[in-house]
């Protein structure tokens, strides 16, 4: 059985190793993708003399007026991010209306802290960090790439399981985890590969599982529903069109804040004229995701009435599991320390691939058949 597992480990590592290396390195870059993007685009590195924008800021309406004046004929959905730090306002525009998934077309816009000027705008996928994001998410291949990336998580789990089982000591654990400094080079390669693999095992397993669930959400939801109950779904709400202009964002924010007074504002989603609703995406106590939280307040864009509240604290177990996937995968759940750990972990598949390939090549120079 150990011989079979070693061969399974070898063939998965050699056959899919470069894919794991690519996903690991791009994942490391994405841990700090906002910071790297700001370094690459100095025009959005501006000093703000006012505090970060919150529920009661009048700047949101000014920012909305600015982008609509710049693109007057574009009637898609606008989203504004409420960052905790003062600085430029990040916005997104979905020309076809509300996003139907990650691959929806969108334009990224950055405004001055007062909302009065546009500092930068780029189509998603046309600048470096968004290209790396798409490469990591779907290999630049849309839904087909999503499937490949998702199932690669299963393959990575099989690689890790086969390696761990083939290594599992039958005698002394002390000898099994020792690094033999005076051994032959091919033995030292094995020890490096072994020790790096053991150290990386928990994180790589976590990234494999969360990556699979994020890349294949429909399949993941079905699996969760069988084990932990149904997935909570946001209610479908509609605004009632009436004569006159929609309510100001300040009004929608005020009623939304009263609906969930302890929540932290994260995103403001503004629909085009019609039956769409203003959605306020907020973080409540216990939600692990700070940037992309899982609670929503729906506000009628004409009357300013609250139509629905989707509170993460009332979600079932399956939805709670889903809520943890993204912050665990991008390591945002623990702040800078966990992000640094995840950044380093992204390089470990490359180290494992190099040491494993060198050992395989070294052994096969001495043997006519493949072994590991």
TrEMBL record:
The keyword Cell membrane does not apply. It comes from the Bacteria. Keywords: Membrane, Transmembrane, Transmembrane helix. Pfam families: PepSY_TM. This is PepSY-associated TM helix domain-containing protein. InterPro entries: PepSY-ass_TM (IPR005625). The chain crosses the membrane at residues 12-33, 148-168, 195-216, 340-361. The keyword Lyase does not apply.
């Amino acid at each position: 059985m150990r011989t079979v597992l070693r061969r399974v480990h070898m063939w998965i590592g050699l056959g899919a190793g470069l894919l794991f290396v690519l996903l690991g390195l791009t994942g490391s870059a994405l841990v700090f993708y906002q910071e790297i993007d700001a370094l690459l685009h100095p025009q959005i590195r501006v000093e703000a003399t006012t505090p970060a924008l919150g529920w009661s800021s009048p700047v949101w309406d000014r920012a909305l007026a600015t982008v609509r004046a710049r693109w007057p004929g574009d009637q898609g959905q606008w989203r504004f991010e409420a960052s905790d730090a003062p600085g430029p306002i990040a916005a997104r525009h979905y020309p076809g209306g509300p996003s139907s998934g990650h691959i929806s077309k969108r334009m990224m816009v950055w405004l001055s802290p007062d909302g009065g000027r546009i500092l930068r705008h780029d189509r998603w996928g046309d600048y470096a960090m968004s290209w790396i994001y798409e490469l990591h998410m779907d290999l630049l291949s849309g839904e087909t790439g999503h499937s490949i990336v998702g199932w690669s998580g299963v393959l990575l789990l099989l690689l890790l399981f086969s390696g761990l089982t083939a290594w599992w000591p039958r005698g002394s654990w002390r000898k099994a985890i020792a690094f033999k400094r005076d051994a032959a080079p091919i033995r030292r390669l094995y020890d490096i590969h072994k020790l790096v693999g053991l150290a990386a095992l928990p994180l790589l397993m976590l990234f494999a599982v969360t990556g699979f669930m994020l890349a294949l959400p429909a399949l993941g939801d079905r699996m969760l529903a069988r084990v932990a109950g149904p997935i909570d779904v946001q209610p479908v709400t509609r605004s009632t069109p009436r004569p006159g202009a929609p309510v100001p964002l300040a009004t929608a924010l005020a009623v939304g804040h009263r609906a969930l007074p302890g929540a932290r504002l994260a995103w403001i989603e503004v629909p085009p004229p019609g039956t769409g609703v203003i959605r306020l995406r907020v973080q409540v106590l216990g939600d692990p995701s700070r940037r992309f939280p899982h609670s929503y307040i729906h506000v009628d864009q004409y009357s300013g009435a609250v139509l629905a509240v989707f509170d993460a604290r009332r979600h079932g177990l399956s939805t709670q599991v889903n809520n943890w996937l993204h912050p665990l995968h991008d390591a945002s759940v623990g702040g800078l320390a966990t992000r640094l750990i995840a950044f380093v972990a992204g390089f470990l598949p490359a180290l494992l691939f190099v040491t494993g390939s060198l050992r395989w090549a070294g052994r096969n120079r001495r043997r006519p058949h493949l072994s590991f």
